Amino acid sequence: METTDTAPAHPFGIDFGGSGIKGAPVDLATGEFASKRVRIPTPEGAAPADVAGVVEELLEKMGASSDAPVGITVPAVVQHGVVRSAANIDKSWMGVNADALFTDQLDRQVTVMNDADAAGFAEARYGAAAGQSGLVIITTLGTGIGSALVYDGVLVPNSELGHLEIDGHDAESRAANSAREKQELSWAEWAEALTTYYRTVEKLFSPDLFVVGGGVSKHAEEFLPLIRVGTPIVPATLKNTAGIVGAAVLAHEMPDMVPAGGQPGSSRASSSG
Predict the structure, then answer these.
(1) In Å, how far are 151, 162, 203, 264 from 72, measured between CA atoms?
(2) pTM
(3) Please, what are the domains in the chain?
(4) Is residue 267 predicted with pLDDT exceeding 70?
(5) Using one digit for the tens of pLDDT, what is the confidence trace for 30-52?
(6) Alpha carbon distances (Å) from 144 to 29, 66, 164, 238
(7) Which of 139, 157, 232, 241 has its CA 20 to 30 A from that of 115?
């Protein structure tokens, strides 16, 4: 009797941002979108139930099969599927079991993770840090500073390196791109603040590579050469696809990481940045 092997469904990545919620299926072999990205504006207020409704609509628009793994980023600390911070989202997210919320809404298993962790993991797997051994620290310079730690290809979640205290200040209050814009700093002046930041991280972690992402990374040639650290430092390469790609890959791989007695569908290597 002849049998036909059915190719597994592509995993889907959903990236929940302040202005839009975006998603696409991802080809795990290449790290590229398997079909066109779909975007729906983030609902006003971005309350948990409203976001879950938009994610459901996205999956319907993309024709996601019921067996396709789904990874969802949240701009917050996520520990075992539960949202533990709400600095950049509605305060009603605090303490919400996001895994349970999305699983109930979508009637499927999901994997929820921090957005910077997802983007950083994608850079380590397919982008600027692909093939790099040892410790890679990926940072996103934007309104704040998101971070991801990847050691020999394994995500070490919930790093929150943007909130290191440096000289009595929250690091991102001086080194984030928003600080550059607010203070109208030149690239050289901002590079001084970044040098202080990355030297502190370097002293604490002794990484093998820094990867710098965020929208401002498209101007990397203006400031990266001015940052004085001993660790190699390079711009991210996946740009605005990284969050979706990382979410999809982690959704595919995380269920295999569930420890004995662990909760299926939770963020086992629970993520944050």
Answers:
(1) 22, 22, 33, 15
(2) 0.88
(3) 12-117+241-257 (3.30.420.40), 130-237 (3.30.420.40)
(4) no
(5) 999 999 999 999 999 999 999 99
(6) 32, 36, 12, 19
(7) 232
